[in-house]
Write a structure and sequence with these properties.
6 strands; 16% helix; alpha+beta; 1 helix; six-stranded antiparallel barrel; globular
């Protein structure tokens, strides 16, 4: 019985570590239109032309919620507003949506 509990405990611990998302560096704070958005970043220096990935959090499971970040698109910094705020142009079919997480690529 102890062995089964120990194995189950190790499995749950390993699953929890695998579900820890990458550290996000910012968020979409304002949707300008379907292809442009304003982002706010923390501790990241962006310049015009930098590429960023757009991510949304996806969670599964009724009892133990396992979450991961799913990439939904990419964008290019089109204008630096301040040290912590920039404007991006979203590439492809991805839609600008407030709350998406940003990771510099």
């Amino acid at each position: 019985m102890k062995t089964k509990m120990m194995i189950l405990s190790l499995f749950i611990s390993a699953s929890a570590v695998a579900a820890i998302p990458k550290t996000m560096q910012g968020t979409v704070t304002l949707k300008i239109d379907s292809a442009n958005a304003q982002i706010t970043t923390k501790n990241v220096s962006l310049k015009e032309g930098d590429r960023v990935g757009l991510y949304k959090e996806v969670c599964q499971g009724p009892k133990v919620r396992l979450c991961h970040n799913e990439k939904v698109g990419t964008g290019v910094v089109s204008r630096v507003i301040t040290q912590d705020a920039s404007e991006i142009k979203i590439e492809g079919n991805a839609q600008a949506k407030e709350g998406l997480m940003i990771l510099k690529e």
